[in-house]
Design brief:
By secondary structure, this protein is of the alpha/beta class. Helix content is 16%, strand content 18%. The strands form 3 sheets. It has a 3-stranded mixed beta sheet with strand order 1-8-7. A 3-stranded mixed beta sheet has the order 2-3-4, with no helix packed on it.
Length: 225
C-alpha cells in the first residue's frame, strides 16, 4: 500500500514572503553544518514580535488576513491533513509491548461489567511517521533555548511540562489561506527521490501571499506483499 507523507510548512517555516530564502550548494543538495549554523542566526525571528512572543510567524495571521481567506471560499470542500489512527488495544494495566507504539488504547469500562456504555483511554506517542501532529516551540532547543530565547531549563519540566512554548499559544486556532502543492504530481512521478535543493523549494513556493504552503513532497515506496 502506498502511504503519503504530507509536510505542513508551518509554525517555524510559515511562508509569507518575508523570510529570505537560504542559499545552498545546489550541485549536491547538501547542507553543511556551517550553513546550518549561519541560517540559525540570519533566518531567526527571535525578538521580532517582542520578548514575550510565543506565536512566531503565526503573528502574520491577523483578523484582516482571516477575512481575506474566508472570502476566497467557493466550494466549501474540506481537505484533511490527518492520517488514520489504528490503535493497538491492550489490557487497562498493560505496558507498551513494543516500547513505542504510536497509539495504545485501553478500555476503562464496558461489557460485561458495564452494560450501559463504554469508555477508553488513549496513550499517544506522536512523533514519527504514523500520526500527524502539531509541534510546539518547546519541542526543539537551540543552545538550551527554545524559540524567542526562553531557557529550556526554566520552562520545561519532566514533571510539569511546558510553561513557555506550548501549543496553548495557538488556542485561537489557525485559520488562513492555504495552498496545497503536490510536487510528485507536478513532476509526473509517483514520489520524489532523496535530494531536494533549496532552489527547487523556492521554485515550488508562492511567496507573494500570506498563508500556509502545504506540500506533498514524498511517497513511501509500496510495502512488499
Amino acid at each position: 500500500m502506498h502511504k503519503t507523507i504530507t509536510s505542513v510548512l508551518g509554525v517555524c517555516l510559515l511562508v509569507f514572503g518575508c523570510l529570505k530564502a537560504a542559499e545552498s550548494d545546489v550541485s549536491n543538495h547538501r547542507v553543511t553544518q556551517a550553513q546550518m549554523d549561519e541560517w540559525k542566526e540570519s533566518l531567526s525571528n527571535w525578538g521580532r514580535w517582542g520578548d514575550d512572543d510565543e506565536k512566531g510567524t503565526l503573528n502574520f495571521i491577523t483578523p484582516e488576513v482571516r477575512v481575506r481567506a474566508a472570502s476566497l471560499v467557493r466550494s466549501g470542500i474540506s481537505v484533511s491533513m490527518e492520517r488514520e489512527i489504528v490503535p493497538v488495544v491492550v489490557a487497562p494495566d498493560a505496558e507498551d509491548p513494543e516500547g513505542r507504539i504510536a497509539v495504545l488504547q485501553r478500555m476503562v469500562s464496558g461489557p460485561p461489567a458495564r452494560t450501559t456504555g463504554s469508555t477508553d483511554r488513549l496513550s499517544i506517542a506522536a512523533h514519527g511517521y504514523t500520526l500527524t501532529h502539531f509541534d510546539a516551540f518547546g519541542h526543539h532547543f537551540l543552545g538550551g533555548k527554545m524559540y524567542n530565547g526562553f531557557e529550556a531549563s526554566e520552562h520545561v519540566s519532566m514533571a510539569g511540562g511546558l510553561s513557555r512554548g506550548s501549543i496553548a499559544a495557538f488556542e485561537d486556532g489557525v485559520f488562513t489561506r492555504g495552498v496545497i502543492v503536490d510536487i510528485p504530481r507536478l513532476k509526473g512521478v509517483p514520489w520524489l527521490e532523496p535530494g531536494i535543493s533549496p532552489a527547487q523549494q523556492r521554485d515550488w513556493m508562492l511567496p507573494s501571499f500570506p498563508g500556509f504552503m502545504i506540500g506533498r513532497l514524498h511517497w513511501w515506496e509500496p510495502n512488499p506483499p
